[in-house]
Structures are given as C-alpha cells and as structure tokens.
Design goal:
- It is a single chain.
- By secondary structure, this protein is an alpha/beta fold.
- It has a domain of 270 residues: TIM Barrel, CATH 3.20.20.30.
- It has 14 helices and 14 strands.
- The strands form three sheets. Strands 1-2-3-5-10-11-12-14 form an eight-stranded parallel barrel, surrounded by six helices. It has a two-stranded antiparallel ribbon with strand order 6-7.
- α3 links the parallel β2 and β3.
- α3 packs parallel to α4, α4 crosses α6 and α7 crosses α8.
C-alpha cells in the first residue's frame, strides 16, 4: 500500500530557450551566479514539500555541470541546510556517487549529518554515469567492470563502518586500516566516529540495469531500490519489480511485489491529457537533450543521438515523444483524478509498494515544479493518506 510520497530534484536551474529547437545542451555555459540559483530553488521546493505533507525530498550529487542541468556537488551539505529550514520532511541522498568519494569520508559525513538532523537525512549510493565527473575524480567509469568492482568494495566498507563498533577491510582497492604502529600497538581495526545515530541505516540505490549481480549485491546489504527519476526512465517495470523481489528472496528477505522499492514517475496535472502533453513537452525535450547522449533514452540510433545535439536537425530525427513516454508508463499526465486512479492500479498490482516518487524532468522551471507539487499534494495524495 502506498503510504509515502517523495520527489527527486536533480538540481537544474531555470533555463531559457528550451526544447529540441532551443539552445543545444553543449552550448549552454551559465554564469556562477546563475548556477548558484540551484540553492534557493532547492530551498523553495523543500519548504513547499514540508508544508504540504510529502515524506522525502531527494537530491542528486553531480559535478562540473556548467550547462545548468545538475548543479548540486554536495548533497549532504545541502541536506543538512534544508533540514534546518524545515520541520518534518526527510532529505534523501539520491545519490552520493561512491566512486568519487573515499568510503570512510562518506560514512563519517553521513553519520555526522544523521546526528545533527536527528535522523532526517536518508542515505543513498550510486555508481555515477558522467565520464566527465567520475573519471575526473580519478575513478573508472568507461570500464564498467572496474567501476562496479570499486563501488562494491566501497559499499562493503561503508556498511562495516556503520554496523560494527570496530572494523577492518582488506580488499583490492583499500586496506583499512594500514598496519602501522600507533601509541604503542599495531593498528588492526578502527572505529567510525561518530557512527550513525539511527541504526540500521536505511540505504537506497538506483535500479538501472537490474542485472543479477547488482540486485544480489543490493539484497545482500538490504539496500532498497529506486526505479526511475533523474536520468533513468521511471514507471512500474514489471520485469524489474519481480527481479528485485527474487533477488531479495535469495538473500532471505521474503516479501510482496514492490516491497523495498520506490517507483518514480514524471507527472503533469492538467485539465486534459492533451493540455498536459502540450505544457510539459518543452521540458521533456530538454531532458532528452541532456540524457540521450549519456545512453538514458533507450532505442536511439547513433544518428539520432548525434542529431539531438543540433537544434536544426533534432526535430526531424524521429526522437521519442512525450505521448510515447506516457503510453510507456514513465509519465502520469492528465486530471488529478485520473492520475490517482493510475497509482491505485499500480498499488493493487504491487501490494508491497509503499513509496512513490513524483516529479518533473530536468528543464522544468521552479514555478511549474512548485505548482505541480502543490496540486499533487492537494488533489492526489489525499486519496492515499486517508486510507
């Protein structure tokens, strides 16, 4: 049963000249002042969500994005700030990209924030997907096998540091602690100081490829999964939901379909489906311009991906449309009553599903985000909150 609603904000600033015919993504280079508007925008969204009854506001970590699409370099710092501006809403790390961190640094920073916010920040980890980010920090991404191996080792260390009063790790990438003399004895183990106040730590990870290795690793550490939101297409992918459940069962976590998952949707409330498609299409198209070259728009040919970068060619490249995304289930568009009914159907299909994310794609202006989130809170959420 759906009991919790959240929203993911990847950190885009308000943009001009959007859509396939607008400014090419690689031609955007915004001023420092413009890029920093992501912070008051985040504050405005957090305050509204706190006031209107949402449970969690997810933020994404990214770096070097002078184009203005994903402009939050430190999720934990911003989450701490937002918790001090609000009263009840939790702030989620969606996600801290582990390969760009030392695992002990990430664990310490989260634990500190956990104490300072009394448990209102939710932990989340990802592997990263921008070569410009991950490779620039000295970690592998082009080599996906190396990236996954590094990530898994880092998460093992983080979980040990959270769950054991003292721990050690000997692996391919890290030897923690090093065997060195310290105050008259040889160092063999260390303690995270502080360990999180809230144990066990609730941890989330994006579900993208949904391969057996990834899902088994998540199940081993009881990591919950988010489908959709940000770069990855959303919607209730039946194959992914059941693969996730099977992996958890192999690890001894029996449960109903949807348990341990959050399913994310882009949405736009309007008087009619046609009106909603018309209003949201420029933002949908801007999202394609950002994410198609990164491989997050399935089924595109190399020629289509090349055309996305050229405003003169993009419109004629037969790119996916918002109408197709709506039909595929990653978007919810139309009157609020219709959207509520669609979510009720998903709830019935996946009885273990408790958490749903709803939001707008990269490119959506602040005013539209605030209006849509408020309308959803007053016109859709009551159908679930009163149950």
């Amino acid at each position: 049963m759906i009991t919790s609603f959240g929203s993911l904000f990847a950190g885009h600033v308000d943009l001009d000249d959007e859509g396939l015919d607008g400014t090419a993504a690689n031609d955007r280079w915004l001023s420092d002042e413009r890029l920093a508007t992501v912070f008051p925008k985040s504050e405005a969204i957090a305050r509204l969500m706190d006031r209107t009854g949402y449970d969690i506001f997810w933020l994404a970590e990214h770096h070097f994005q002078r184009e203005g699409y994903e402009c939050i370099p430190n999720v934990l710092m911003l989450a701490l700030h937002l918790c001090h501006l609000t009263k009840n809403i939790r702030v989620g790390c969606g996600f801290n990209n582990a390969p760009m961190w030392h695992p002990i640094r990430m664990a310490e920073d989260f634990a500190t924030v956990d104490w300072l916010t009394n448990g209102r920040v939710v932990f989340g980890v990802g592997r990263g997907y921008h070569t410009r980010e991950v490779e620039a920090f000295g970690a592998p991404l082009l080599d996906q096998s190396a990236n996954r191996g590094l990530f898994e080792g880092q998460v093992e260390i983080i979980m040990k540091s959270f769950n054991q009063r003292a721990f050690s790790h000997r692996g391919k990438h890290y030897t923690i602690p090093p065997r060195v003399p310290y105050r008259g004895y040889e160092l063999e183990e260390i303690t995270l100081v502080p360990r999180p106040k809230t144990l066990p730590v609730e941890c989330w990870q994006p579900v993208v490829s949904a391969g057996p290795r990834a899902l088994d690793f998540m199940a081993k550490h009881d990591i919950r999964g988010i489908i959709g939101g940000g770069a990855a297409p959303g919607g209730a992918n039946e194959k992914v939901v059941h693969a996730f459940r099977e992996a958890r069962a192999r690890a001894g976590h029996e449960g109903e379909p949807g348990e341990g998952l959050c399913i994310g949707f882009s949405f736009h409330i309007a008087d009619s489906v046609e009106q909603g498609i018309r209003e949201a299409t420029p933002f949908f198209e801007e999202n394609i311009k950002m994410f198609a070259p990164l491989g997050f728009v399935p089924g595109l040919t190399p020629e289509q991906i090349e055309a996305v970068a050229d405003p003169k060619r993009a419109r004629g490249a037969n790119l996916p449309t918002l109408r197709q995304a709506l039909k595929g289930g990653s978007w919810l568009i139309g009157p609020a009553e219709q959207i509520a009914e669609q979510l009720m159907e998903i709830q019935h299909k996946y009885p273990g599903l408790e958490v749903v994310n709803v939001g707008q794609p990269v490119g959506t202006p602040q005013a539209v985000i605030l209006d849509q989130l408020e309308r959803f809170s007053t016109q859709v959420m009551p159908a679930f909150k009163r149950r």
